[in-house]
């Protein structure tokens, strides 16, 4: 695990950002990668939430910034600014035994100790193949943030951060009631059926996304639809979420885009586990209804590629942001676009970078 005490001489980035953001590219990728690992080391001492069940985005945003090309200086600046809201982990558990129950945030230190020991004993691949099928039924936990944090941890290969991500997922594990009908529908028909569910405006308007998702899970009519989108529609669902975000700037839909990117990153360890895609789709149905955005529009514009900013410009603008969700969204959209080229990813990233107006839930 790298923990450098000084940086090497900086160099200009190959695809320099516009002048206003040039300071974000003041060091080479090797420098910022080493800085990222050092900052992740420091972050292991911090609690994974702040205030009332709000997930710490520090490790995820740092990874997204480095992925987009941020310098070591920018990573440290972001860390100093963000870490002020976080408190230390009260204690590092010495007991590495697996906790008896999932979904108890107070067990986070023990889950962390357990997964750190398991990584050392079994290796990354063995642990992920064993644990991801166990965790996926609770993928809706804290609005997908266990999944999202795990996806970021995989990219940079920091073992401690991977243990922390899995520990957070396990300690906030939140399964939804099982779907009651699995007959397949097309994405268009599925979204139309969700949009037609009555009484959406009368649902409790809770502050947390995960709470609103759980409320929808209690509805029998929702459970009859949630499982009806086939696994093969996952890429189209992700593109649809990007188009919906471009149209609405829904904060909840934003999480579907970043969660879909994380699921794509985890797919090599989920091959042969067909239930995992269904579990994600099930949670996505809850998030779509919790957002209110799926009821708000039936037209999902894909965006005009000719007038959209290119990825170097979008990355540079995201690096200059202090909004962790915007940073992560732009990085996720660029990752999606690399695997599934379509202008809708640029449209979603560009919408996130627009001057802020009040967002939908």
UniProtKB/TrEMBL annotation:
Region of interest (Disordered), residue spans: 1-29
Record's keyword terms, sorted: Oxidoreductase
GO molecular function annotation: oxidoreductase activity
Domain of life: Bacteria
Classification via InterPro entries: Questin_oxidase-like
Stated name of the protein: Uncharacterized protein DUF4243
Record organism: Roseateles asaccharophilus
């Amino acid at each position: 695990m790298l923990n450098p005490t000084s940086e090497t001489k900086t160099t200009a980035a190959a695809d320099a950002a516009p002048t206003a953001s040039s300071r974000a590219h003041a060091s080479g990728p090797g420098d910022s990668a080493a800085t990222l690992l050092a900052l992740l080391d420091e972050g292991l001492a911090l609690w994974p939430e702040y205030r009332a069940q709000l997930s710490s985005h520090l490790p995820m945003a740092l990874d997204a910034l480095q992925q987009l090309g941020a310098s070591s200086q920018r990573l440290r600046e972001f860390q100093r600014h963000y870490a002020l809201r976080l408190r230390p982990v009260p204690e590092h558990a010495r007991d590495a035994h697996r906790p008896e129950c999932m979904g108890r945030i107070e067990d986070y230190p023990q889950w962390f100790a357990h997964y750190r020991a398991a990584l050392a004993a079994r290796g990354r691949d063995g642990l992920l193949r064993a644990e991801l099928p166990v965790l996926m039924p609770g993928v809706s936990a804290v609005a997908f943030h266990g999944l999202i944090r795990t996806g970021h941890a995989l990219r940079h290969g920091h073992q401690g951060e991977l243990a922390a991500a899995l520990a957070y997922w396990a300690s906030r594990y939140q399964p939804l009631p099982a779907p009651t009908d699995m007959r397949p529908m097309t994405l268009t028909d599925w979204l139309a059926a969700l949009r037609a569910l009555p009484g959406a405006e009368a649902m409790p308007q809770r502050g947390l996304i995960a709470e609103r998702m759980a409320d929808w899970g209690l509805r029998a009519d929702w459970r009859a639809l949630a499982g009806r989108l086939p696994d093969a529609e996952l890429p189209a669902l992700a593109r649809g979420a990007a188009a919906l975000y471009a149209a609405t700037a829904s904060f909840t839909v934003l999480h579907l885009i970043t969660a879909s990117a994380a699921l794509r990153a985890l797919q090599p360890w989920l091959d042969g586990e067909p239930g995992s895609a269904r579990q994600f789709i099930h949670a996505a149905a809850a998030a779509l209804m919790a957002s209110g955005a799926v009821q708000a529009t039936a037209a999902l514009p894909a965006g005009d590629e000719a007038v959209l900013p290119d990825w170097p410009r979008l990355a540079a603008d995201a690096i200059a942001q202090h909004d962790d969700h915007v940073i992560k969204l732009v990085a996720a959209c660029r990752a999606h676009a690399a695997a599934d080229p379509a202008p809708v990813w640029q449209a979603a990233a560009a919408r996130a970078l627009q001057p802020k107006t009040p967002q939908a839930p």
